[in-house]
Amino acid sequence: MRKLKVIIPIVLVCVFGGIGTAMYVISNSDKPIWNATKIYNCDEEVKSIGKFTAATAEELLSKSENTCYSPVSLYTLVCFVAEKTNDSVAKEVVSGLGYKHYGASYKMKKGCESIIEKVTCVDEDANNIVQIGNSMWISNEKYDVTAEEMSDSDIDNVPMDIFVEDFSNEDIGVWMSEKTNQLISDVQVNDMSLGLVSTIRFEKTWHINFKENKKGEFTTASGEKIQVEYMVGEEVSGYVSGKDYIAANMSYYGGTEMIVVLPDEDKNLADLVDEDTINEIIASYTTTGFLGGEKEADVKFTIPKFSIETTFTTDKINDSLKNIGIDKVFDINSWNVAGDNEMSEIELIQKTKFEIDEEGTVSEANGKPKFGSLGYGEKDRTNLDIVLNRPFMYIVMTDDIPLFIGTVYNPTEG
Fold this sequence. Notes:
Blueprint: E1 2-15, H1 44-60, E2 67-69, H2 71-82, H3 87-96, H4 104-119, E3 121-123, E4 128-138, H5 147-151, E5 160-164, H6 169-179, E6 192-206, E7 209-219, E8 225-241, E9 245-251, E10 256-263, H7 275-284, E11 295-304, E12 306-312, H8 314-322, E13 345-356, E14 382-387, E15 392-398, E16 401-408
Parallel strand pairs: 4-5, 11-14
Antiparallel strand pairs: 1-6, 1-13, 2-16, 3-4, 4-6, 7-8, 8-9, 8-11, 9-10, 10-15, 12-13, 15-16
Helix pairs in contact: 1-7, 1-8, 2-4
């Protein structure tokens, strides 16, 4: 069995003071007929977070380097914080997340609840864990509030621990260690008076069976050829063929999938990192049938092992939110808290550690893979050979909710 572990801390702090070759199809040299779609065939909250992911990822993945970003973590944090802001900013958030017309605020809150419910799973025995943890840290020297006042929310089931006390980095580290099963135990921030810390514990067992490891060449965006270790596996998979890319998913037990996106041979990965393309890929994986969307194939995957650590800070994250019209949700002057808000410099950090390899657990995992249910007979399926030997994108989704999205430009770099 195969396992992927990902832990993400998000910290909001208020501080006072292509070249190369790749094969697509085993049977011929042409990639499949275009089946991508921009139409979401899903619940409103899935469409909301899908569009949120695409808009924010365009900014956060814009550099030609290894990256990983957790949209679901930022999305749920934004929803919760919106309740602590004034009416003007709250409306800005609701509109930015795509909830319109009568009852938009109520729809956003219920949508956030639904997303948390869909992604959360804790089954230690089956190695099937997706668990969001949030905490708010408030200096009792700076703010005249209680934990009960700040924890009050119309959004049910948001995991939020409130601390109103004189706290330190060590205190936050202890909390993080408990929430992440000791995988992350520290976070370094400046002297802070109000902070938000969000973690995701993510452990999954591969449904795809990686039967072979082999050494091979990977061609970076600069044309440099490097030696990497590849994992090779096969499974019945959903694929999406777009104008400039091919995408296919590798499945985990428990209904989670990792979609890998490879640009066409005459395109660079940077050409795909835009809101429109990312939105199309996500929408296609929520849609099947006459509307277009994913189709089924027998896929052989050749994917390099990689380990990535990414840190996004204030300016980058705020710029990504501005892409959807959210400008002041992390401005302390917009929050309904009593205290010394004369200085409102915000330090906002999302730090991600993401690893993929073929290591597995001893026990057998439970659950069902997503695919094998699209209605295609074996004779109707396309044969695909996806060789990720040059820069590619990946999106990890569970129940159509994007948990992580990132880029791999060099698998040997952290």
